[in-house]
Design goal:
Number of strands: 8
Radius of gyration: 15 Å
Strand order of the largest sheet: 1-2-6-3-5-4-7-8
CATH class: Alpha Beta
Helix content: 25-40%
Low-confidence stretches: none
Largest sheet: 8 strands, mixed
Number of domains: 1
Structural class: alpha+beta
CATH topology: DHBP synthase
Strand content: 15-25%
Number of helices: 7
Distance between the termini: 30 Å
Length: 184
């Protein structure tokens, strides 16, 4: 398990605009402060990912993502509760104030409340949701080891070492309003 001291260091790095790598449910992820435009742009540049695609936010609890979404009906909130915390990402209506660099060309934002212990601790120490996207350049296989993260991005990128959550594929993305499977 990652020490509390290391997690506090990581949270401070995030607050200062760092991009980090960390284990998630299936692969290593890249993350940063979602409200720091410069950090998000660095993350997108590392991945060679266009901002128009949008990004996923990952959190330790619903409150950490609720500041990014419009109020949702109880029926939809109940649907979320059946899969959270857990490895399901939901597309939800984004508040108008959510920056383009997070939602891309969509009116929705992808959010997940994780049950991965390292992710939850990072978000708790940071005090909110962070960006979560697979740790790989566009078109390359996602990193499943810290070694692969370093091979892709170099040793300057802070990497939190830990076990993956055991999924064999990236988390599914579901549209909470339509039920459509966006990524299976």
């Amino acid at each position: 398990m990652v020490s509390k001291f290391r997690l506090r260091q990581v949270a401070q790095q995030l607050h200062h605009g760092a991009v980090i790598a960390y284990p998630t449910e299936a692969v290593y992820g890249l993350g940063c402060d979602p409200l720091n435009e410069a950090a998000v742009k660095r993350l997108l540049a590392l991945k060679s990912r266009p901002a128009e695609k949008g990004l996923i936010l990952i959190a330790a609890n619903f409150e950490q993502v609720s500041i990014f979404i419009k109020p949702i009906p109880t029926k939809i909130k109940d649907k979320l509760k059946t899969s959270w915390p857990g490895p399901v990402t939901w597309l939800l209506p984004a508040l108008e104030a959510v920056p383009h660099w997070l939602r891309g060309d969509s009116e929705r934002i992808a959010v997940r409340v994780s049950d991965h212990p390292v992710v939850r601790e990072i978000c708790d120490q940071f005090g909110g949701a962070i960006v979560s996207t697979s740790a790989n350049p566009a078109g390359k296989n996602p990193s499943i080891t810290a070694f692969k993260v370093n091979a892709y991005f170099g040793r300057e990128l802070p990497v939190i070492h830990g076990r993956l959550g055991g999924l064999s594929a990236t988390t599914p993305i579901l549209d909470a309003l339509t039920g459509e499977v966006v990524r299976g």
